[in-house]
Amino acid sequence: MKATDLALSQFLGLRPAPPGATHLLELPFTAELHNHLGTVHAAAQFALAEAASAECLQCRFGASAGPVRAVVRQAEVKYRQPASGDLLAYGTPDESTERDLLNDLANRHRACAVILIDLKDRTGTLVFHGKFEWFISRLPSLST
């Protein structure tokens, strides 16, 4: 399942990045997402970042990890600048996730993954930085 398939993502207007883009997801600047200052509401930014972290996990490890269940365990975020335009979400696994995730899933059937997310406007201004920790467990195999 892609992050943009979820009802909340569709409600917020999250959309996948165009083919060949370096970012994962986009959030259009719409009046429904404005806060009292006319900038993108913090909750909408958080939702974009969380969805992008899921998308990053899926894109980077999905095919190799096999059937898993993943849930966010913890998040640390910093809102750096007011966002007054479309937002682009960039994501990357941290070094230990890149190195250990697939091995941990294979050997222990569970793992933690940390995904680093940056939200930037179309001018490249960094407006948000987040660190999302996911708990991932293998789904039991079906016996026939």
Could you characterize the architecture of this molecule?
- The protein has 144 residues and is of the alpha+beta class.
- The chain has one domain: Hotdog Thioesterase (Thiol Ester Dehydrase, Chain A, Roll), CATH 3.10.129.10.
- It contains 3 helices and 6 strands; from the N terminus they run αββαββαββ.
- The protein has helices spanning 7-12, 42-65, 95-108, and strands at residues 15-16, 25-27, 68-79, 87-93, 110-121, 126-138.
- Strands 1-2-4-5-6-3 form a 6-stranded antiparallel sheet.
- The two termini are 25 Å apart.
- The model has no long low-confidence stretch (mean pLDDT 94).
CATH class: Alpha Beta
Gross CATH architecture? Roll
**Overall 3D geometry?**
elongated
Query: In sequence order, what are the helices and strands, one letter per element?
Result: HEEHEEHEE
Number of strands: 6
Count of the separate structural domains: 1
Low-confidence stretches: none
- CATH homologous superfamily? Hotdog Thioesterase
Biggest beta sheet attributes:
6 strands, antiparallel
Q: Into which percent range does the helicity of residues fall?
A: 25-40%
What is the radius of gyration computed over CA atoms, rounded to a whole number of angstroms?
Answer: 16 Å
Strand order of the largest sheet: 1-2-4-5-6-3
Binned strand content: 25-35%
Overall pLDDT confidence: 94
CATH-defined topology? Thiol Ester Dehydrase, Chain A
Number of helices: 3
> From the helix content, strand content and strand pairing, which structural class follows?
alpha+beta
How far apart are the first and last residues' alpha carbons, in Å?
Answer: 25 Å
